[in-house]
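[Target chain]
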Amino acid sequence: MYKKIVVNVCEHETRVALLEDGNIAEFFIERGNISDIAGNIYKGRVQRVLPGMQAAFIDIGINQAAFIYVDDLSIGGFDESKPCNPVEAQTADNVSSYPETTHFSKKNHELKIGDLITEGQELLAQVAKPPIGTKGARVTSYPTLPGRFVVLMPNSDHIGVSRRIENEKERNRLKEMVISLRKENYGYIVRTAAEGIHEESLENEMNFLINLWKNIQQKYKTAAAPSLLHKELTVCLRAARDLLMHEADKMIIDSRPDYESVLSFLDTFMPSLKSAVELYEGNEPIFDAYNLEGDVSRALRRKIWLKSGGYIIIEHTEALVAIDVNTGRYVGKHNLEETILKTNLEAVKEIAYQIRLRDIGGIIIIDFIDMEKKQNQEKVFNAFREALVKDKSKTNILPISEMGLIQMTRKRIRSPLIQALCEPCFYCEGEGKLLSRQTICYNIYREIQRESLDMAGSKIALHVHPEIAELLHVEENHLIISLEKMIGRQIVIYPESEYHLQEFEIIEI
């Protein structure tokens, strides 16, 4: 399967799409806000200890307090000379996931959180999960520093190897190499990209990560709480590190500064991959050139049509995501059971694809069309389990229940796509979803960029909803300034009170 990464960079927003045979398989977006703090390391201060929940709130310097569970607390501090051993279960198979969020913790079930930390105490905290909805960021005091070949775990002495490296001889070679090279009593997870690596390359990266950790320790000693000690790579560099280095064949970027940044990054870690990075210089926006805008829009829809005429409905609730399968316009050719089976099997592939693309996490309930034959139920279940093999996030699937439901869980790493790009609709008091105002501004930016190629006038009139007009005049004014410089024309904004929030019109003057 041919895979490539397409990166679109504009003012304060970067979009990364992983394509598999031309279709978006994974989609990432970064806007420089608090949703992009996963992997960051902070010096925090304990605000409140909650003994009844075995958790605590930590001030890390952002608007919303982070929280930490007792299991994520390192006993004795982050720089203890004899670190605690973490739980080894479910480790190495996930170390190459994107973005890197592998964290380890000692199970402290026998201890009370009040015995470990007190209010006002300072501690080192790494963001394991960014803020999602109304929930604050989840942090851990077991930091991890990912490199290309290994993940450094300063508060552990465990040595693990990614389960994606299946050759037992190679696994043993890598493990013995790490043990012989490590100078400190630190833990490491060997990543998939390390397969076949030479000792010198591995030693260089281990030394780099150790020096990075020592620098973080030094900052911790002198910095005030709360403060940022270490910032994770940008989404563009994370794509190069975790996608290009592990699975994609090519990376195309439409921004020269980011293109050069990726080349510099690869020059340090993997010079042989520099030839796989390409600068896009076409006049047409890069996502249009690869026909990706439609896929992104489709990933926000509630109703997804299947080729046969059936469809699926995806509903997000506070507790879980419900997915319903319907025959729709499909009537079949022979009998009802065959029609139902075909619709369910077609829905299986689309559901697995949408879960991965939309990055849906937590509890997922799938209501397939009821099948009378047990063997047909097993066909659908096995097909669904097989369709999820490509998904790097950890999933747990239960067989089809007597009510025709599949219950599953998927590890939640960040906000789902619909939450990242949309906001509650004020027209219907939150019953539906609208594109967020910021997303509308960026859509306008791209549409003007697209249409200006065929315009000859000296000015462009932009008619928008009054709230969007105000946003473009104030907070997002940098978009208009950037566009005017890019296209060499003045943009005049006209507020239209009768317009829907998402409606806009671009007119050549």
